[in-house]
Amino acid sequence: MTEITYLNNQFLIAMPALFDPNFFHTVTYICQHNDDGALGIVINRPTDMKLKDIFEQMDITCDAERIRNAPVFAGGPVQQERGFVIHSPCERQWDSSVSIADNIVLTSSRDILEAIAHSEGPENFLVALGYAGWGSGQLEKEIIENSWLNTPCGEAILFKTPVGQRWSAAANQVGIDINRLTTVAGHG
Length: 188
Hints:
globular
């Protein structure tokens, strides 16, 4: 019997030949992967929105310019009106959180945005609208078809690496210069 390996707390790195406009040159953080499918948040697609735009829509005040100007990411093509915060853990508990790993939590409730706005939130955070979703067996099939590489999450890539360098940095964790891969890699 083959042991099933799930990709929770891993990065999915889009291969150069993945031309789907939703995922071209993306890095997706896998938050949940099981027999039913997978859910991930794209971490290198900033939108034109800043966090201040979200705060204004939700009637949350924020005076800290650094926080107000934080980017909002396009987390994926599913439920783009729904917000997610990937963040480092902190002492405070949030209304709707799931611990992904010892050092990473996913929260989707208003209370964390209010805390972030008042500089009382987690030290590291990434705010995204929408998510990427795969049905049962779909992600595994796409990996077999060479659409994705996967590697364990690198917290520095998730929170500290400049957005434009995340795709290459994640691939570098695997020991690959992704820009040198051909579109026919792995096909005979």
